[in-house]
Design goal:
With 253 residues, the chain is mainly beta. The protein is built from four helices and 17 strands. The strands form four sheets. Strands 1, 2, 7, 8 and 9 form a five-stranded antiparallel β-sheet that branches. A four-stranded antiparallel β-sheet has the order 3-4-5-6, with no helix packed on it. Strands 10-17-16-15 form a four-stranded antiparallel β-sheet, with no helix packed on it. The chain is globular. The protein starts with 6 loop residues before the first helix and ends with a strand. 32% of the residues are buried.
């Protein structure tokens, strides 16, 4: 006659097999999937954007008049307040000066003074304190036609109303959707802005990048449906992420 099985051994063996099989784990069954990074805690914005402010987009740089530039290197939020790390220079280089700033703070970037008037998850707005800088960034370019490279500085890094209007017209109207193909398409505006996108393997997050006048002007990583992004002073909300496309709905005029 066979000996009876001790129930304690049976339970222990079952637990071991369960653990080894990976059943019920948080990674979706041991298939190597990872959870998306945590959402930004917000608030979406702190402070107020000014009409003459320079919009420095997250993950990108802004080439300043007279040389130099500034980058929005990192966003910080704890649910109540928001700050940002900004870095000197229009593009990343080793040993650049960087500082963490808050709304209302006065800072010096590339030798000129600015007031940080607004910080959002997607942009930092800097108000020039030097009237010469303010006038230079607001000046009308010789042409609204893109020439490519640094010749497009007056189109890509400008607060001029005619330039912003021309860039705005390159996008679908408010309420309509801009589609970006995953890893295979480059969308280019009449003013020289180029935008590309990619979708994560789980289609829960994606990335949207933009360049203009040879400078990476935005690098939105780990965006999700509902996140706000900005290009050429136009606001969008990510409306869809799928295996082959990123769609964003225009939310500003």
């Amino acid at each position: 006659m066979a000996k009876p099985v001790n129930s304690r051994y049976l339970v222990a063996s079952t637990v071991v097999l369960f653990a080894l099989s990976g059943c019920g784990t948080s990674d979706g069954g041991g298939d190597g999937a990872t959870a998306p990074p945590p959402r930004d805690k917000g608030p979406l914005c702190a402070g107020e954007a000014t009409a003459g402010g320079l919009h420095v987009l997250r993950g990108g740089g802004f080439r300043l008049p007279g040389g130099g530039g500034v980058q929005y290197a990192a966003a910080h939020a704890d649910g109540k307040t928001r700050s940002a790390t900004v870095r000197d220079g229009a593009r990343y280089e080793a040993d650049q000066k960087q500082q963490t700033v808050e709304p209302g703070q006065q800072i010096t970037v590339s030798g000129h003074g600015y007031t940080v008037t607004q910080i959002c998850s997607y942009r930092v707005v800097l108000e020039p304190q030097d009237e010469k800088v303010r006038a230079a960034v607001a000046a009308a370019p010789d042409s609204l036609e893109s020439q490519g490279g640094p010749a497009d500085n007056g189109l890509c890094f400008s607060t001029n109303r005619s330039v912003l209007a021309a860039a705005s017209k390159g996008f679908p109207p408010k309420g309509e959707t801009q589609s970006l193909l995953d890893n295979s398409g480059v969308w280019t505006s009449p003013t020289g802005l180029s935008i590309t996108a990619h979708v994560g393997s789980d289609a829960q997050t994606g990335g949207i990048s933009a360049s203009c006048a040879g400078i990476k002007v935005a690098g939105y990583e780990d965006v999700r449906v509902g996140d706000t992004v900005e290009f050429a002073n136009v606001l969008f909300k990510v409306s869809e992420l799928s295996d082959d496309v990123v769609r964003m709905k225009r939310t500003s005029a």
